[in-house]
Specification:
458 residues; alpha+beta; conserved putative lor/sdh protein from methanococcus maripaludis s2 fold; Elongation Factor Tu (Ef-tu), domain 3; OB fold (Dihydrolipoamide Acetyltransferase, E2P); 4 domains; six-stranded antiparallel β-barrel; 7 helices
Length: 458
């Protein structure tokens, strides 16, 4: 009897322990499943998207400067103004440049006239005039030669005459000196006058002869020139002379073109249509050297540059449609297309990504500006008639990696855990391949689990 009571007590203790364990392991879980929200399993199209954020960028930006420094006389545009290609933005003082253009123009005209003269066909009248010119030059040369001979003879005669006069005066002076004649002083004055007259005559005759010699030399040069002119006309245009004249025309044309370009460059013009975003010139002030005179942006076409993770970049193709939203206009959805993808990656802190450029094709009524923060959504795939559940409903068992959801089909007041197989997903929904039916209700529950610390935790 006593042994029976002992066994009864042991059985009760074991039953109490099992019950206590069951309450420890089962009851708290059931009480921890607090339902936060529910949703219905639906069948709809699933769009797979890639999202990224970045900034609006213009097609190109250029700093404009004058090629040469100078004083700005006119400024034609202001910041924010739109300009067309070739529009004048500012102008420097062109006084010296206009003078240089005129000088180059005159030099070019002279070179062309020279070429025209060199290449002009020889006419008989030109030959006749050249022959007459040579004949006239020959006659003038003969007259000059005869004049030179005559002048030399006259000079010799005059010098001989004054020389004899001086010699006679000297003889009379010496005789009066020997005789101690009272006329000694007179004879000496006569001799000195004769000596001075001889010196004057020699100088004058030398000048006269020199002039006659120069006249003959000039006549001789004129004769040679006339002879060369006739010979040149008889031979016709010289190829080397023509080529030299042509080169002179080419050089003059280049000089004139350069002068015109320098004048044109004094007016700074827009290389393309766009908007002026910076102006650093002032009227009647020297053009800046360290800063650009103007900054021009080509905003006719706008882009959005974003960085896309290497996992996502393979899903995107060129010319793909893109939805764009701007922080400045959150209620508007702008349209765009993929314009380019960088061939080389960017590695920042071990994260590899690629630059994606989206061309905005429809900006609605938004005033899109360079640098605005933007988000892009690229639709890469569309799965039609897919079974979908919200992403928040999907759970993954950490130990096994199995995917499950809580179905709102209560067992003992607790949502039921159901294993599922998932497919594609986007930012909102996940495709269910198996485990759920359309119309089922799923729940988001708050899971609380007790940690098992082993014997030391008892």
């Amino acid at each position: 009897m006593k042994r029976a009571w002992i066994w009864l007590i042991l059985i009760l203790l074991i039953a109490g322990g099992v019950g206590f364990w069951w309450l420890r392991t089962r009851q708290p879980q059931e009480q921890a499943l607090e339902i936060l929200r529910t949703a219905e399993v639906v069948r709809e199209d699933l769009e797979i998207t890639v999202s990224a954020s970045g900034n609006v960028a213009v097609d190109k930006t250029v700093d404009l400067q004058f090629d040469t420094p100078g004083t700005v006389t006119d400024v034609y545009v202001e910041v924010g103004e739109r300009v067309q290609k070739g529009a004048a933005l500012a102008r420097l003082d062109v006084t010296d440049l206009e003078r240089a253009v005129r000088q180059a123009e005159i030099a070019l005209e002279q070179a062309r006239l020279n070429l025209k003269t060199v290449t002009r066909p020889v006419e008989e009248t030109d030959l006749e005039l050249a022959r007459l010119g040579l004949q006239s030059a020959a006659q003038a040369l003969e007259v000059a030669r005869m004049g030179k001979i005559t002048t030399q003879a006259d000079a010799n005669s005059a010098i001989l005459q004054v020389q004899r006069t001086r010699e006679n005066a000297y003889t009379m002076y010496r005789d009066a000196e020997d005789r101690d004649s009272p006329a000694l002083e007179h004879d000496r004055d006569v001799y000195e006058d004769a000596e001075e007259q001889e010196a004057i005559t020699r100088r004058n005759m030398a000048i006269t002869v020199q002039r006659a010699q120069e006249q003959w030399l000039t006549a001789y040069q004129n004769y040679q020139q006339a002879e060369w002119n006739l010979e040149k006309l008889e031979k016709g245009p010289d190829e080397e002379e023509i080529r030299l004249a042509e080169l002179q025309v080419e050089q003059a044309e280049l000089n004139f073109k350069q002068a015109r370009e320098n004048l044109d460059e004094a007016t700074l013009r827009a290389p393309f249509a766009g908007s002026i975003v910076e102006v650093n010139v002032q009227q009647h002030v020297l053009s800046p050297v360290q800063l650009p005179a103007f900054v021009l942006v080509d905003d006719a076409v706008l882009y959005v540059d974003v960085m896309v993770d290497e996992i996502e970049i393979g899903k995107i193709v060129m010319d793909q449609l893109v939805d764009v939203t701007l922080d400045a206009y959150p209620a508007l959805t702008l349209k765009g297309r993929v314009a380019s993808m960088a061939p080389s990656p960017t590695d920042v802190g071990g994260v590899v990504s690629y630059l994606l450029r989206v061309r905005l094709t429809d900006i609605s009524d938004a005033e899109v500006r360079d640098g605005m923060t933007a988000s892009v959504l690229v639709r890469t795939q569309k799965i039609e008639n897919a079974l979908l559940i919200p992403n928040w409903a999907v759970r993954t068992e950490q130990s096994s990696g199995e995917t499950y959801v809580y179905c709102y089909c209560l067992e003992n007041g607790v949502p039921k855990q159901i294993d599922i197989t998932v497919g594609k997903r986007n930012d909102t929904f996940t495709e269910v391949l198996s485990g759920l039916d359309e119309g089922a209700t799923i729940a988001l529950v708050l899971e609380e689990r007790e940690l098992d610390f082993g014997p030391s935790g008892q």
